[in-house]
Records
---
Amino acid sequence: MDKNKMMAVSGAGGFVAGAFIGYLYRPPAFLTGQLPFKHVISRGTTLKGFEQIYIQVAQTSFNYLIMGGLIGAMLGVVAVILYQNKAK
């Protein structure tokens, strides 16, 4: 596998793994616990009526998901760089 393809695959895999971990560690909403994925991925736009008080929690949960994904992607790319430098 060439260098660029290995970095892309590792970065994508790291993003997915990091986003999953970020989703698991999302903050709970008051009295209801963690919000479902449907509300998190839409940043709370699917919340209706009284549930709209949880929009801020949904937005924060989405931010956790994205930040986890970005950190995971960075770690995946760094791992490939370190592996390739060690192999030389």
Note: Residues 3-87 form one domain.
---
Amino acid sequence: MGLRRGGAVRRRGFTLLETTVVLMIGVVVSLSLWPLALELLRRQQALTARVLTVRTFALLHERLGADFARASSFGVEPVIPSASFRLTLLPREPGGPEVVWDVGHRTAVRTERRTGSGGTVGETVRDWQLDGSLALRRDELLPGRCVLVWDPDVGPAEFLAFVPEPTIREAE
């Protein structure tokens, strides 16, 4: 008894069970990637947005938080209460960027200055139009923290507190 060669091969289609399993796997993968896709779209929109609304202000808050985390200390100008103010964040690490936030009436400008090799200074400037106002709580400066009040045009005001990283480590 030998093997038959050249016999007809019968094509078999997918069963209903196999099709259902493949579709369910596709649905699960799509739904699990949905939050990631939405987050990427939100970040892209906010990075290119010129007007920060209540929904996109979270990215400006994250940027401020990251700048304070890399800072050794900060300074505020002017020393008298004013609607416009400047926050200067000094780098914690040598060679790190100095970051300056200029906040005015419904605007915020972030300037990052890096000193490169050979003493060259590179500067990156980013500005935003705010859909609300950002104010500084000067009574909170003495304990070493910076408290900003975000008052959007729509919705309640939020308090945003920032502390430079070395101050956090000293407290532990």
Note: The radius of gyration is 27 Å.
